[in-house]
Amino acid sequence: MEQKYILKNCDSFEPKHIFECGQCFRWNENEDGSYTGVFGNNVINVNKINQEVIFKGVCDGDIKNICENYFDLKRDYEKIKYELSNIDNYMKESIKYGSGIRILNQELWETVISFIISANNNIPRIKGIIERLSKKYGNKIVWQNKEYYTFPTVEELSRASIEDLRKQGLGFRDKRVYETTQIFLKNKDFEKKLKEEINYEKIKNSLLELPGVGPKVADCILLFSTLKKLEAFPIDVWIKRVVQELYFKEEKDLKLTNDVLNKLAKEKYGELAGIAQQYLFYWRREA
DNA sequence: ACCCAGGGTCGTC
DNA sequence: GACGACCCTGGG
Question: For chain A, which residues score pLDDT lower than 50?
Answer without folding.
Answer: none
